[in-house]
Each structure stands twice: as structure tokens, then as C-alpha cells.
Design goal:
alpha+beta, Trna Endonuclease, Chain: A, domain 1, 8 helices, 9 strands, 43% helix
Amino acid sequence: MRLAADEDTYALRIIDRTTGAPTAHGVDLISVTTVLDRILAVPFSAAANYGFRLALDGLREVSLDAYRDDDGALDVEAARARLKALRLTPNEVRDDAASRGTAAHEVCERLAAGWVPRPCERKEMDGYALAALSWFDTVRPDVLYAEHPVYSLVWRVAGTADIIYREDGRTILGDFKTHKPVRPSAPAYVKDLVQVSAYAACAREMGIDVDETRVIVLGETGRYAVDERQVPPDAFGAIVSVYRLLEGWLA
């Protein structure tokens, strides 16, 4: 594997202890995902549909009649408290999704390090972990790096590559996701594809010859889907340029 010409430049990624922001050799960096979240916002229609689904999920679990007074008026705060206790409010759903993602990534990191779960451990795995295990068992990647920091001093961005591995003579950078597949033939969101493309470009700048990217979408049923579509690095380059132009307005 080719090393960076200036190895010292890319040897360290330092987190500023005061701000918590990534820096490298005095250069302030920003997270790739922060840039994408600010510029590639969720369309209103998608956000509205998501809120509607959450409301329906809440109605399935909670009878609103139980929270009406004698005049039929709804005690909104009591109903909201009940939904929160059931973890069906937007904040709780978001936090639970984040926890699932963190747990799945921890399993992936252990599998990348060579962990082979025993039968008793497999029985305790949730669907996302089983999906990760299925992918590792099927692909059998030759893992080069797992949870590897990558950054670009050109774009002034940083991120963490879930896995970089060899398969059929190619070096591939992969990222694990736990959202529902967008479509069977294209399970990743455009933002996912741009993210791995940006990570791959960062890795190349650091001297890691990445050939392709993969987005591996882990499902709660224990199945996974892989998106092999390749987004050109220039796409993120354009996005980060827009971010820098609007940085003061996006605060």
C-alpha cells in the first residue's frame, strides 16, 4: 500500500480538547457529516411523511380517549408524557435510532478485528448485528483499517471510515448504515453515497489507494443490502465549497 509522501502531515488527527473540534497541524477541520447535514437537508415532504408515520405509531399504542376530560378536551401534556414514556416522541425515536447505530457500529468494529461470536452470543444479537455478521460471513473482507480517521487538509474536513478492506484485488471503503433501504435496487441515500465518496477522497489524500466505495445498509430483520453506486469526489468538493460560502449564514 502506498504511503503519503509527507507521512508526518497525515500521521495524526488531533481533537482540540477545548472545542472538541478536529484539527490537524494547526488546521481547523469540520466533520464531513456536518457539511452534508447543513447543505443536503431532508426535503420537507420527507420530513412531513416521517412525522406523520410517528403520529400513526403513537396512535397505535395510545388511546387518546384515555386522556380526555369530561368535556372531551384532550389533555395534550398527559398524552405527550405517555408517548415519551413509550419512546414514541421524535426525540426519543431519534435517540433510539442513534443508539442502534452506535451498537451496530461497535459490533462491526469487533467483527473487523476478527471477533467470531459463539453460538450463545449469536442468540443475543439483534437484527442489525446479525445483518453485520451476515455481511462479514459472506464477503469475508481482508480488513486493512476499521474506524479509521480520515481527513483532508485541502477541503479542511474530517471523518471516520467504518472499514477499508481488500476484495478481489480492490481496496474498498465501506460505511455501515442502519436506516431502512430507500429502494431494493438503491438502498442508500444520496447523502450516504456522497459521504463515502468524500471519505475515500480523504483517504486517497492521506495515501491510501481506495478504488471503490460501498454503503452497507443493515436491516433490523438480520438482512443487509449493499449500494455500489459511485459518486465522483467533485460532488463533495462542490458541496463543501457551498458550505464555506454560506458558513456565516448557517451558524
